Amino acid sequence: MAKYRIAWLPGDGVGKDVTDAARIVLDDLGVDAEYIHGDIGWEFWCTEGDPLPQRTLDMMAETDCAFFGAITSKGKDVADKELAPELQDKGYSYRSPIVRMRQLLDLYVCLRPCKAYPGNPLNYKDGIDLVVFRENTQGMYIGVEYARVPEGFYAVKGTEKLPRDAAISFRAITPGGSERIVRSAFDYAVKHNRKKVTAVHKANVLRQTDGVFMEAARKVAADYPGIDFDNANIDAMGMWLLKNPFNYDVIVTTNLFGDIISDLCAQMVGGLGFGCSGNIGKDYAVFEPTHGSAPKYAGQYKVNPIATILAAKMMLDWLGETDKATQLEEAVAAVIAEGKVRTYDMGGESSTLELARAIADKL
Ligand code: IPM
Ligand code: MG
Questions:
Q1: pLDDT tens track for 75-131
Q2: Residue 74: how many CA atoms within 13 Å on its side-chain side?
Q3: Is the dihedral of CA 329, 289, 191, 198 positive or negative?
Q4: For labelling alongside 168, which of 118, 141, 229, 290 has CA 20 to 30 A away?
Q5: How far is the CA of 197 from the centre of ligand 2 (A)?
Q6: Phi, psi of 40 (to 5 degrees)
Q7: For ligand 1, what atom is nearest to the CA of residue 73?
Q8: Which ligand is nearest to the CA of 140?
Q9: Ranges of residues in the chain whose predicted pLDDT is under 70
Q10: 179-209 burial string, b = 16+ CB within 10 Å, else e?
Q11: Which residues line ligand 1 at a C-beta cut-off of 6 Å?
């Protein structure tokens, strides 16, 4: 029996292209794993009314962790139209499977390292090395939304002037949820010899929810006197990050701000072709590239697989296969530095799998 059982979830769009690429390097690394395919993605929404079928969740429950490619999400109108005729008007509503996995499995850390590998022509500045900790289960992602002001809402003080046709989305932040994400960021800083943690918020406007987040952050920071702690408003942070990315090290923030800031950080190190994610809970994790499914490139084996290959590196670290993880990162760095094999985003003409092969050849 293999040492690890890994749920293999390519999804749709370019999800298959990039996970195929990751398998090339994982196989060449000799990872002792069994990969178990799971159905997930747009087609299962259309045919079954669920892009993340229960059988996939059941299979995942029997694995050590999961590796996920990408999934197409479309707006409500299109989603409803593409649902099989026999399923229409039966109350099915589309919800992003990755968001569901994060919440169902309590994968509360979204870890997104953004490193400018030397020689990457797409680096905004050489030497950038940021790590984003995004709270992954709460905030604006709780899915409590109303198309119109819900019944009883006007009983809440301050809502009197709200027009009846206002759509409402709730944001929820708990002290416990905040403490555990901030603590993860500090523990990471200690373990990886990082100097500073910056908490990002909008506490001057979102006074309650970000008030809770910042109170928890300050409390946790006091337990780590060896690590600098500061904070910034999300808007200013967008500006400061571009102006001086070297002032930052580990960034910790709530769900939606983390979504936004991690794309910004990814762009500074080459774009979404380089952004990798770990969705990590107490004893399960799902690794994925940060990018979406880019349906127009699906099956063309054209997109950059490095984000996904770096997600595989994160998975190896999490599994405790640190030597293999380091080997893999060094191979990625070497191929980037050499600059001979590049996908279109980097100005080259190599395919997804050629780039993966080049990385595997360096192992
Ligand atoms: C991400 C993505 C997802 C998110 C989408 C696909 C729902 O943008 O992982 O950053 O918003 O979290
Ligand atoms: Mg995002």
A1: 888 999 999 999 998 999 999 999 999 999 999 999 999 999 999 999 999 999 999
A2: 16
A3: positive
A4: 290
A5: 21
A6: -160, 140
A7: 6
A8: 1
A9: none
A10: bbbbbbbbebbeeeebeebbbbbbbeebeeb
A11: 73, 96, 98-99, 259, 290, 292
Per-residue pLDDT tens digits for 23-64: 999 999 999 999 999 999 999 999 999 999 999 999 999 999
Nearest alpha-carbon partner for 263 in 239, 291, 288: 291
- Per-residue three-class SS string for 294-307: CHHHCCCCCCCCHH
Is 335 in contact with 355 (CB distance < 8 Å)? yes
Q: What are the tokens at 239?
A: 């500006």
Which contiguous run of DSSP H or E holds residue 189? Answer: helix 175-191
Ligand closest to 102 (CA) is 1
pLDDT value, residue 104: 97
Write out the two tokens for 96: 């992003």
pLDDT confidence of residue 29: 98
Please answer whether residues 88 and 42 qualify as being in contact, where contact means their C-beta atoms are separated by less than 8 angstroms: no
